[in-house]
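Quick log. Single chain, no ligands specified.
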Amino acid sequence: MNTGRANTGMYTGTVISDLIAAVERAERRAEQRAEQQRITEELQAIFCAQSFTEQSLAMQIPVTDNDPILIGAA
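-> predicted structure:
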């Protein structure tokens, strides 16, 4: 059966290596997108709260009894 392609012989193994590299790149991109989505959702939860109560709760910073409390402009 003639497929119209020249007979190039057997693959040398670079095809599999190239496929593995492509999959690894795709996995990294997917992880980066998921991390970016998580960060975006966290920022929206902090800065886009619907009420003053939600905003004050979202922006609270935990302190312990020994931490100084500083009030004023940063």
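Residues 14-58 form one domain.
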